[in-house]
């Protein structure tokens, strides 16, 4: 599991920025993101959305919150995931956010954006990593935004009418997917009474998703009406337990994890959690033994191989890490996060040319990973290609909202790369964005 700090990125350009950009931290883990895909897929299909297009991303924040900012991303705080007791509860959150997308509630955000801009300098939609999902070319055209808490709430909050509509649609999506709608009641029960608290004591979810007693009663009545639609979902139960188990193993103390490692009832998850706890105690041999036992139970699971590679890599056993990551890549050749980790391990082992190939593929599949771009720039530099090293560095800075630094590296790349080449044109995109941002600062 890796933390990836990104700035909140604007999807639009040329807007006045009045406060420092705020950073968020995404938890990029291929195992957890795969689990989210498994849990979300039937709901997204029921909503008429594409499961391959909509990503569920986890924000490293203990607050209870979830939100959408465009049609392609649903963000869930790690605190909310850990608060959920079962798959149906987490799926209720996903269904609700998917309903906001499917029901067109994001259209109102454009109007809120304009109001918030004049009120507190919120220049554009919070697209976070979404603005760069299509690749570095679009990332180069992005500008970092800053926003006060009040402006962000103005932008992110939903009306009661939207919440009621999303409740009804989300419950329908759950029922159509055969998911127990009582999960939605359980989630809402967590937030009951929040509106009686002062705004500063409320969970962010309650502030942006207003909850009333009437709304709770309607949800409970609808959930009861759909009760006969629910059916057993063993695959969902497994992936929920795995995602929550892995996340908690990294975020809770090793002692806490070891005493609760087997609470899910799945032997491989128990072993995985034990491995993480041992690794965090620097007990590498114990961690690897636990991972090997888990892998023996699921020999075709690329994510267990990836975790073994991470443990070995962080223990500076680079050759063994390359082997583990290599096996993971063979099982999941199009997983950008695994490809990026493999490239990083190859770099550590000194296989620079091979590392570059895998890092380029990772960047092409997912342009949101600043670590991949950092490693790719290093690979180009080690091979003497200063022009491409500067270009990738400029695109990484642009993605992070550091457009002044991006412009400096883009100018260097422009001077070094053949005029008219693909790389040279990419450098011009970054330069244009940097110049536009500089013009707005004046």
TrEMBL record:
<keyword id="KW-0479">Metal-binding</keyword>
<dbReference type="GO" id="GO:0051603">
    <property type="term" value="P:proteolysis involved in protein catabolic process"/>
</dbReference>
<keyword id="KW-0645">Protease</keyword>
<keyword id="KW-0378">Hydrolase</keyword>
<dbReference type="InterPro" id="IPR001915">
    <property type="entry name" value="Peptidase_M48"/>
</dbReference>
<dbReference type="GO" id="GO:0016020">
    <property type="term" value="C:membrane"/>
</dbReference>
<dbReference type="Pfam" id="PF01435">
    <property type="entry name" value="Peptidase_M48"/>
</dbReference>
<keyword id="KW-0732">Signal</keyword>
<feature type="repeat" description="TPR">
    <location>
        <begin position="302"/>
        <end position="335"/>
    </location>
</feature>
<feature type="signal peptide">
    <location>
        <begin position="1"/>
        <end position="23"/>
    </location>
</feature>
<keyword id="KW-0482">Metalloprotease</keyword>
<feature type="domain" description="Peptidase M48">
    <location>
        <begin position="28"/>
        <end position="221"/>
    </location>
</feature>
<protein>
    <submittedName>
        <fullName>M48 family metalloprotease</fullName>
    </submittedName>
</protein>
<dbReference type="GO" id="GO:0004222">
    <property type="term" value="F:metalloendopeptidase activity"/>
</dbReference>
<dbReference type="InterPro" id="IPR011990">
    <property type="entry name" value="TPR-like_helical_dom_sf"/>
</dbReference>
<keyword id="KW-0862">Zinc</keyword>
<dbReference type="Pfam" id="PF14559">
    <property type="entry name" value="TPR_19"/>
</dbReference>
<dbReference type="InterPro" id="IPR051156">
    <property type="entry name" value="Mito/Outer_Membr_Metalloprot"/>
</dbReference>
<keyword id="KW-0802">TPR repeat</keyword>
<dbReference type="GO" id="GO:0046872">
    <property type="term" value="F:metal ion binding"/>
</dbReference>
<dbReference type="InterPro" id="IPR019734">
    <property type="entry name" value="TPR_rpt"/>
</dbReference>
